[in-house]
Amino acid sequence: MSLFARSGRRCATEVIGVRVKRLAVLVLVVWGMAAWCPVAIAVTSELCELARGAGSSATGAWPVEGFSGLPLSRATAASPAATLAAAPLGSFSLVGQNPLYSRGMNAGLALHETVVDGVDKRYAYVGSRTDGTHANAGVLVVDVTTPSNPTIVGQIGPPNEANSGETSRELRVWPEQNLLIVLNFACTSTQRCSSVGPAATVRFYDIAGANAAAPKLVSTYRPSSTPHEFFLWDDPQRPGRAILYLSLFRNGSTSLLVTDISRARSGSFTEWKRLSLSIPSSTGASAALHSLTVSVDGRRAYLADYGGGFLIADTSQVANAVANPAVTLVTSATNRVRPLRSPGTHSAAKLPGRNVVLLTEETYSPCPWGWASTVDVGSESAPRLLAAYQTLPYNGSAYCSTAPSPSAPKTAHNPTLTRDVALISWHSRGLQAVSLVDPARPTQLAEFVPTPLPSVATEDELTPGSAPAENVAMWSMPIVSHGLIYVVDVRNGLYIVQYTGPLEREIGDRTFLEGNSNLGDAAAIAAG
User: What is the pTM for the complete model shown?
Assistant: First the structure.
């Protein structure tokens, strides 16, 4: 049997513990193995090295505990084969941008379409990582009707947003109800906040018609614990029903809140406390449910546990509107996919219509930071790690000895997925487009790294690097709208870009797609 690993420009693929270093283009064939070791393949020192990253020191072999690898049979090939081939690459072009008052500390992004006086209008909403002691720290309203000229037209400020000690971290739009959803919680000096703020809230704003440019508060949900992130699931079978899945960034007690927001306009919310996870850490960092995504049909949740790794949960009772729904693990803690890097798993999202999940790992320090990986979930009870995707040379161990100090983090963050393409915000490596046609061989299609602003009002503690070119922090979940990609940089503002190249129709044909809800084209993509 042959095992192929391909590397394109500025990207790498790791397959079962092998890192293929950058070569212009490489197709590597391994043959004739009578036995298989899951830790490494010895090919040549020029091409491969033992996979690193089991701990924060970025040393040691691939973390093989609980790792099953790809199924291999005894080889039958009698002679070696090696082929060089051209790797088709795409590109991003900048359509429009707005520095958002050069305020810095930007956070979550949401998009909305509406009609005002018979005219189609589109708006972007951008939260803030810091608090109201800084100028323009509210939720900014940006008119993106003309994508080449995004224009700030308003701001949600005090007393609803931009309060002292409070960050507007996560945003979604529920279009069926014309509601903007904003998660607020207390921030600290790490986020340049003056003091620890009030308890967490989820605020709902009317954005129908003319209110889209000047959102009006209609209700406030006060969760019983502080969420870290949330996923919006719109019930495809029951119009008017929607659920928030809120991760609490903890294990050992309630790790997840499941909240019915169907009556948000009347201020009525039903909350269930679920999943008291007891997952051991695989990295030394605290095991804690960082985030999750939910399948289009609502029957499965894909859990990203920070120090623990990746698991799948059964949410079918929530999907079926059971009165007191249970949420149970399908993947046991023993069979979870362990993180490759410390502190661990940031995001987990399933490719629509495919038995593959993409994971991102958030490692702000040390070099070589965190990257992405693919997982086979054909067996939900025993998912299998397939491959890792890195941006090279930056996520390779060799870079660390020559990296400038300080260096802005070059770590993966938030993904939005089509059937075959991953769009990933990657901090100082900008926006990545990755082909997952073959999930065992992720391949870079394009990257967009903007030119940083000369200065901003408030710098994030993670952004400043040793050189101006380092000051990029692409952070938000990318959103695809009418073939264009919208993404927010913590420091530099809102960017609207267009992808052209291989698989471009998977993005160009999309009306709406985002990684933190099942809205828009998600169902159509999943259906194939």
Answer: 0.85
Q: What is the pLDDT of residue 19?
A: 33
∠ CA 214-218-223, rounded to 5°: 120
pLDDT tens for residues 155-179? Answer: 999 999 999 999 999 999 999 999 9
3-state secondary structure 146-188: CCCCCEEEEEECCCCCCCCCEEEEEEEEEHHHCEEEEEEEECC
Which residues, in sequence order, are CB contacts of 497 under 8 Å at separation 6+? 92, 93, 94, 95, 431, 448, 484, 485, 487
Which positions ≥6 away from 245 have C-beta within 8 Å? 230, 231, 233, 256, 257, 258, 292, 294, 301, 315
258: nearest Cα among 234, 242, 274: 274
Token pair of 171, please?
A: 């945003």
Interior angle at CA 387, CA 385 and CA 391, nearest 5: 140
Using CB atoms within 10 Å of the CB of residue 321, give its burial: 0 to 12 exposed, 13 to 18 middle, 19+ buried: middle
Distance CA 411, CA 424 (A): 10
Q: Which two tokens stand for residue 496?
A: 């609207």
Question: What's the pLDDT tens digit per position in 348-403?
Answer: 999 999 999 999 999 998 999 999 999 999 999 999 999 999 999 999 999 999 88
Residue pair 152/171 in contact by the 8 Å Cβ criterion: no
**Measured distance CA(185)–CA(249) in Å, rounded:** 13
- First vs last C-alpha separation in the chain: 30
Q: In the chain, what are the domain boundaries?
A: 91-527
Cβ atoms of 338 and 370 closer than 8 Å: no
Residue 214 CB coordination number (10 Å): 14
- Average pLDDT of every residue of the chain: 84
Query: Which of 66-80, 180-194, 329-343 has the lowest average pLDDT?
Result: 66-80
Taking the CA atoms of the chain, what radius of gyration do you get in angstroms? Answer: 22
User: In sequence order, what are the beta bridge partners of 517?
Assistant: 232
Dump the DSSP string for 430-483.
-EEEEE-SSTTS-EEEEEE-PPPPS--SS--TT---SSGGG---B-SPPEEETT
Angstrom distance (rounded) from CA 483 to CA 503: 12
- How does pLDDT run across 499-517, given as a tens digit for each residue? 999 999 999 999 999 999 9
Q: How far is CA 495 from CA 17, 151, 379, 498, 519, in A?
A: 36, 12, 38, 10, 21
DSSP tally for the chain: helices H, then strands E: 4, 34
Q: Which residue has the tokens 């691939």?
A: 62
CATH topology of domain 91-527: Methylamine Dehydrogenase; Chain H (2.130.10)
Residue type, 227: P
Q: Which two tokens stand for residue 116?
A: 């005002």
Residues 248, 290: Cα–Cα separation, whole Å: 7
